[in-house]
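Cross-posted from the bioinformatics board.
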Amino acid sequence: MWFLLWLKSSPVMVFYGKGELLAAIVLMSFGSFVIYEARGLPYHSEFGPGPGFFPLWIGIGIVGCSLVMLCANFFRGGEVIEVSRVELVRALSAWLAFVLAIALMPLIGFGLSFGLLTAFLVLVLDRRSPWLAIGVALGLALTFHLVFAVALGVSLPAGPWGF
Amino acid sequence: MEALSNIVLGFSIALTPANLSWCFVGVVLGTIIGVLPGLGPPATIALLLPLTFKMDPTTAMIMLAGIYYGAKYGGSTTSILLNVPGESASVVTCLDGYQLARQGRAGPALGIAAISSFIAGTFGVLGLMFIAPPVAKFALRFGPPEYFALMVLGLTMVVFLTGRSVARGILATLFGLWLAGVGTDVFTAESRFTFGRKELLGGIDFIVVSIGLFAIAEVLINLESQSGAEIFKVPKGLRNLLPTLQDLKDSRFAFLNGSVVGFFIGVLPGAGSTIASFLSYGLEKAVSRRPEKFGTGVIEGVAAPEGANNSETGGALVPLLTLGIPGSSTTAILLAALHLWGFRPGPLLIQENPNLFWGLVASMYIGNVMLLILNLPLVPLFAQILRVPYYVLYPGILGVSIIGVYTVDNSLFDIWMLGIFGLLGYFMRKLDYPTAPLVLGMVLGQRLELSLRQSLMMSQGQLSILVASPLAAGMLLFAAILLLVPMLNWVRSWRVKAIEQEV
Amino acid sequence: MKRQQFHFTVALLLGWVFAIPVIVCAFEPTKPVDVVVHTAPGGGSDLFARAIAEMLQKEKLVSQRLLVVNKSGGGSAVAMSYLEEKKGDNHMIGFFTGVWVTNPLTTKEATVMIKDLTPIVRLVLEPAVVAVKADSPYKNMKDFIEAAKKSPGQLRQSGGSVTGRDNLVRLVIEKATGAKWVFVSFPGGGERIANLLGGHVQMMVMEPQEAGEHIKAGNLRVIAALTEKRLPSFADVPTIKEQGIDVPIIPQARGVLAPPGVGGDVVKYWDGVFGRFVKTPAWKKYLSDNQFEDGYLTGNGLNKFFDDLTVQMRDVLKEAGVKVVR
């Protein structure tokens, strides 16, 4: 028992182990949620399984497998994978920008929100010049608008000004 | 001999200038649609229907069919170059295709995709021509128990997709199976896991999940580090931009595999090109000499699924033209189109309208040739996309993904799903969870549950119906054998290790 | 002379004064009209709407373009809430089917009822027939019922969703005759027919035009028509009532409605358009080609139809054991 704690506290392993552990815990709670919801659905129907049958067993499977993952995490031997914090932050901030763009889309339209997203990616993440950021943002947004909205007639989320 | 005169008749119709030009229009349009993620043949064909009223019905059918199988050619392009699946059936192509592109072999990958599509597409047309009626009759023997067995067979392919950790693979598959269950239960009209949102009542769209897991996640992974030099090597010289002789040799079984599997799966109503491509990929891996390399960039991992999704179009036309039964959403529209033009699709269609059938069949040959000629020279051109600087490429991928997803249902909710699955895909990559099993679980999950419950409904709860017919029992047996293969390999390698240790 | 001119001018002016409100109040669409359907492209409702839009524009009955907007998901739930959100939008119509009535009754998330929207016109009633394989022992409905009674729960029927018309038909017949058989849902129309032809199920309720070709080829046989009167294309097939089974005929209706809150003039405009439309030979040909029954109904008759249908559906569903939430 103490051996396991000592193993887990090793600094190099903590990071990857932490991520894996977190994932196993998240999955376990998700599996439990699925089981809970599945219990609310009828298990049997007229003949054979009802709508609750499959989700129940899927939930049980998820909980079971994540338990296995948890145990494997404790007994992890030599394999160590370093995870860089910087990389994680960069990727997540890109994702946040993406989500923000989606939130803005119904308000200011696809063109503008996508342009802003592009500008952010070029300027902040790629650390290029502001002029390049504006240029690429404008270029891409315009190209998409022309190719899809105009030439192909596909409707895109539009703000009050029509694009 | 009768077949010969029919073929001659067909070509005489297909080779008229009008039919040739509209065939060309169809395949080009289809390729473009296939390249664009999200937008697919059903929507396009439905949009173009009014235009077809002014045309001769045979010509119209030739064009619409061109869009149908042309899209399958185009779907592989973005899958290979950008890890963005252009079509549901191209998801499997992303697995090895994108890896090949990263190794600087985008050209050969694209080329093999085109060649395999051509071979399989031609096989599909040949099948449609010669063995359509008996194959259609055979397909009628597939009831719910047989579909269940087929889905189980498909799921055993997970074993071949897990890579390192089996537990992770199973978890991914289970999650995919759960995703398939979100929505409204067909049998009881109860809503499952919809969290009160009506957009989820129809279930989660597969293409949204794939684009999120593959494309968005890939962009996020690549944005971790600032882009410096080009990581994608784009070798110069035509020789490096086309498949080598070795590539062709490696893919010989894949060509056969894709053609046959795709065609037969296509004939089954309800089983689509996505299932066909997964099954073909899994089969290829099962019989391969280098199964552990799959997923890292093996050329036959591109050849097999790309072939399968092309011969599937030929297969899907079999029930449509021989029985008047539509097997997929695209064939359903084609059926409606035939009705609108005044035909009566059914078992007598071929006899009553030989011009339509044989003209169509002949034009499909021509269409496949056109597509090969179009696509192969374009390969070097497409490969140049990878030259685009990353700060343009990645926002571009995000934009195309958003647009592609929005065209599916005009729903902002879908775009949110894109964001959610993008994040999920990112974490899965970081934590070494394989994404392919998730996708497989989602594709097969719905029909797996459906056919199990249908079967048990039919047998009033008796499980024996699942192995009652030789067809179903045979497939389940095959699945069991396939499950044993890696186990035998594992035992063998363990024994080898034990022997080595002794020595 | 001058007095006559004066009177004439006054009359003219008065005429204009009265005409102006009519001209100003008469509605005419000034931009493309959205046509909302609840299926994906290629689905039944989508193709129906596209065909009608095409005919309307060909006959020049509508001056603007008609654009089909697909809002699929949750049966009709997504489409109905979309229309409800677009309250007062003059340039939008929707194509409804029977699902629009039953869906809100069984699905919690489908919060919009059909009466919340503005009904305009009912266009067709889709009849149905009972079909079996040509080599099956059932020559008429009675044979099938007898067989079902002898082995309850052994015979199978293929169909769509449990809240769809084909299952509801089964439920009313079961109730009236005491026979029992299993309903197997298949999501796609093609599969339902394939399973019937393959012998995996014994019976199917289908639309006459679906059955037509298979009957001509000798694969299927129609044993009953689920209509009040015999169908013209199946003149030798007795109706279900003629065969002694007294059940209510459950209609599958299709028609047009508009978002809530549109003005009376808009409804009047569409009334006029469709009133003229159903008289055109193109429409009559479409009806006969697809073997639809002309179900033209507007105004109060239409409202009553929806009310009656909602009540009928609620009863049938409850009896079937399907959970009714509204």
